[in-house]
Amino acid sequence: MACNSRELYNVSVLAQGIGLAPGKRRDCREPILPMERSGLSPEPLTRGPRHSRLEKTVRASMARRSKSSGRWLQEHFSDPFVQRAQAQGWRSRAVFKLEEIDLREKMLKPGAICLDLGAAPGAWSQYLHRRLGKTGRVVASDIQPLAPLPGVQFVQGDFREQEVFEHILTLVPQRQVDWVLSDMAPSMSGIDAVDQPRSMYLAELALDMAARVLKEGGGALIKVFQGVGFDALLREARGRFANVKLVKPAASRARSSEVYLLAKDFRLV
Ligand SMILES: C[S@@+](CC[C@H](N)C(=O)[O-])C[C@H]1O[C@@H](n2cnc3c(N)ncnc32)[C@H](O)[C@@H]1O
């Protein structure tokens, strides 16, 4: 499929208060060679065979599953971002969301200090480590375990708990952090009225952490599900950062209300 460069990196930048058009499909859902564009070389594919065995096992078990979970798995394994992530050795397709936003918005620089919240299984941390280089620093956290990653310091725990929040604070140099990233999303019950407020709470906590650790001029990238509390979160972000917008990368499913709040130029008050 022929795509122009605008379509390849089609991040929908939305003005405050303007909702997503959930049914709106992108013309080009598969950016070409994002890894080559970012200049990062994928790590050796040590996980390839495991992925294909897993895929076979899951495909076999699909027959026994319900129609809807079968459909989800079918969609998952035929997703070009999933396939590319597996082929390139990334731990999840989420890497392509961060990469697209990073390249488009010129976020990350070698030597930066970054906090990665909701880091498991670890694709963003993998990306950060390579992007920031030897002089950079990545502190990651998740309620789930994270298989060790070189150059990434990890704290396991529930970010809603004060002691986890405090533990992370002890690991990041105060007022020297360049970016706070949050891809946190609660396990979904499928009930919007439950899931959306839970995810909003995580986004609020991530913004709070950003306000505690960022240096002047630092930034935050936070996953948010639109709904109750969304406008208040935007207002809060606009009060602390000079430049705030919403982005939806191509790898973020069009039917999902997920967007990323991108806040730049943190102001110390
Ligand atoms: C979409 S995944 C993140 C994917 C990750 N960015 C990557 O690149 O692999 C969302 C993560 O949020 C984490 N999470 C959800 N609730 C959390 C909580 N209360 N505290 C910490 N992490 C949480 C989940 O365990 C999950 O790993």
Structural class: alpha/beta
CATH architecture of the largest domain: 3-Layer(aba) Sandwich
Low-confidence stretches: 1-39, 41-50
Task: Report the radius of gyration as a whole number of Å.
Answer: 18 Å
What proportion of the residues is helical, as a percent range? 40-55%
Strand content: 15-25%
Q: Largest sheet, described in full?
A: 8 strands, mixed
* CATH superfamily descriptor of the largest domain: Vaccinia Virus protein VP39
- Report the count of strand segments: 8
Describe this structure in words.
- This protein has ten helices and eight strands.
- Mean pLDDT is 82; it is low at 1-39 and 41-50.
- It has helices at residues 5-8, 34-38, 48-62, 67-78, 80-88, 95-105, 123-132, 162-171, 192-213, 230-240; strands at 12-14, 113-117, 137-142, 152-156, 177-182, 214-225, 241-248, 258-266.
- Helix 3 (48-62) packs antiparallel against helix 4.
- The site of S-adenosylmethionine has 22 residues, from helix 7.
Write the layout of secondary structure elements.
Elements: H1 5-8, E1 12-14, H2 34-38, H3 48-62, H4 67-78, H5 80-88, H6 95-105, E2 113-117, H7 123-132, E3 137-142, E4 152-156, H8 162-171, E5 177-182, H9 192-213, E6 214-225, H10 230-240, E7 241-248, E8 258-266
Parallel strand pairs: 2-3, 2-5, 3-4, 5-6
Antiparallel strand pairs: 1-7, 6-8, 7-8
S-adenosylmethionine is lined by residues 91-92, 94-95, 118-124, 142-144, 158-160, 183-186, 202.
